[in-house]
Amino acid sequence: MPAALTLDLLKQADHDTFCRLLAGVYEHSPWIAEGAWTRRPSDGFTTLAQLKRTLVEVVRAAPEAAQLDLIRAHPELAGKAMVARTLTAESTGEQRSAGLTDCSPEEFARLQQLNADYSARFGWPFILAVKGPRGLGLSRQQIIDTFARRLSGTKEFEFAECLRNIHRIAEIRLNEKFGAEPVLGNQVWDGAEALAVHSEPGFAERGELTVTYLTPAHQACAAQLLQWMREAGFDEVQRDAVGNLVGVYHGSDRRAPRLLTGSHYDTVRNGGKYDGRLGILVTLAAVRELHRQGRRLPFGIELVAFAEEEGQRYKATFLGSGALVGQFDPAWLDQTDAQGIPMREAMRAADLPATLDAIAGLRRSAADYLGYVEVHIEQGPVLDDLDLPLGVVTSINGSARYRGRYTGVASHAGTTPMNRRRDAATAAAELALFAEARASADEGSVATVGLLEVPQGSINVVPGACDFSLDLRAPTNAQRDAMVLDVQRQAQRIAERRRVQLQLEEVMVASAAPSDPAWQRRWEAAVRALGLPVFHLPSGAGHDAMKLHELLPQAMLFVRGGNAGISHNPLESVSNDDCELAVRALLNLLDQLAQETP
């Protein structure tokens, strides 16, 4: 086996040696290594992540024609070059790892047709990092499914997605050259896979992930996480009165305030594997590493895996983190789920006390904590678009949610003149368009009508009722409130003009949560220490940090999501390398705190 490449070797190399050492990282494109040579720091690359980012920047700065040549330098999957055995050694190994050299006749025919269709549509070969987000290889079915899905994409998106996959291919090749294995990242990625085996009936049979509050699948996840906390070295592990899982890793001074961190382990219906759970697993890996080193910090670490954040089974969003800040609504206990089961009964069935006294005892005191940090998948396309693995969150947007109904008069679609109609559906449609336009007029605001339904609707009946939802979000409370007021007023105007009745119920209001400057700076320093540029972005999604913000200074770190950052979706994805960087960033933040602590 040849000796692994090192950053010291690169630093000492002359131009020709530098380019030779990086040969093959990008397929038939030596100009990328040339570009990295000109961009190398005067003291050499200090981290592998810095080298990877520099190579990405070379490609991003290249003319579109050069980027297209790079894409076209790659072979088709299971294509003519593979059959003729003219692939590079790197491509041969990658296609073999995914089993593409062992396709059945039916699979091979399917891939050949997909190759032809894709080339005809886009004019370049389909590029996919077939070693996948874990680096072990995608299955042939996963490859075929991804191929078919992306065939319907736009030319602009596919061009960018091909380049993103090329960077992932290059990352895996660099890992192999350097003998680098993302051990901590693998722990995170594998943990998410292991948790994802637990899903609720009706979803599990279809291979879909759904874990809602206190169901058997939820309790199975809780048992697994508690076991992992113990194995990772947490000194105290317990499930609290609302089902949160709490692990404490003591510091050298048990009386010192702790760092609080965590995220949620429930999911939306047919959701992804990383929303919420990523933050829990990143902290588990970090504490496991501290325990492996036999290291205690001057402060303790308290990890809370929140039992509920999504509000899927009951209308009780942020139930888990809300309990920690004294905001558990007593009325929640009497709420019923779709099967008519009250929350109080579900709690008792899960061996929780289901009493307000027990829940009130969960409230934390700010004096006991240094602050709150949370690692989370971005749930958006920004980092993926920029080819950045990590982003520092500046603020969590404030939000307001409503359920509404317009009620008009159901009437015959053929005999009711247009000027005599009292159409509830067109009223809701008009409101949806107004909300879209109103949010677009603000910097950072968003508005969504996610539910739109005509109860007992018929193709030949003017809708007599239409149920709808409103989700309004903005970077500040004032901006959100102004948008809410405008939408409410317009909703009433529409009702009056269209001669329908309006019902509008507030479901949830959450305040914006700006990141604490000092904690944000710690995340920034942690990202820089990895050799990565610091990129700031707001969070359009709500997080448990929004609740803890009411008690403690907080700041979040985002991890890039693959597949254009899609979330609340089975296509939600992260790579083991990005997970590794997230764990390393958290460990660096812990080191900073240790140095600051007297």
Structural features, described:
The protein is an alpha+beta fold and 598 residues long. The chain is built from 23 helices and 16 strands. The strands form three sheets. Strands 1, 2, 3, 4, 5, 6, 14, 15 and 16 form a nine-stranded mixed beta sheet that branches. Strands 7, 9, 10, 12 and 13 form a five-stranded antiparallel beta sheet that branches. It has a two-stranded antiparallel sheet with strand order 8-11. Helix 3 (31-39) packs across helix 4 (48-61), helix 11 crosses helix 23 (576-596) and helix 12 (216-232) runs parallel beside helix 13.
Summarize the SSE layout with pairings.
Layout: H1 7-12, H2 15-21, H3 31-39, H4 48-61, H5 64-72, H6 80-84, H7 89-97, H8 105-122, H9 140-150, H10 155-178, H11 183-195, H12 216-232, E1 236-239, E2 245-249, E3 258-264, H13 277-292, E4 301-306, H14 319-324, H15 343-349, H16 356-360, E5 369-377, H17 382-386, E6 390-396, E7 398-407, E8 411-412, H18 424-440, E9 446-448, E10 452-453, E11 461-462, E12 465-474, H19 477-498, E13 501-510, E14 513-514, H20 517-529, E15 536-539, H21 544-548, E16 554-559, H22 562-565, H23 576-596
Parallel strand pairs: 3-4, 3-5, 5-16, 6-15
Antiparallel strand pairs: 1-2, 2-4, 6-14, 6-16, 7-12, 7-13, 8-11, 9-12, 10-12
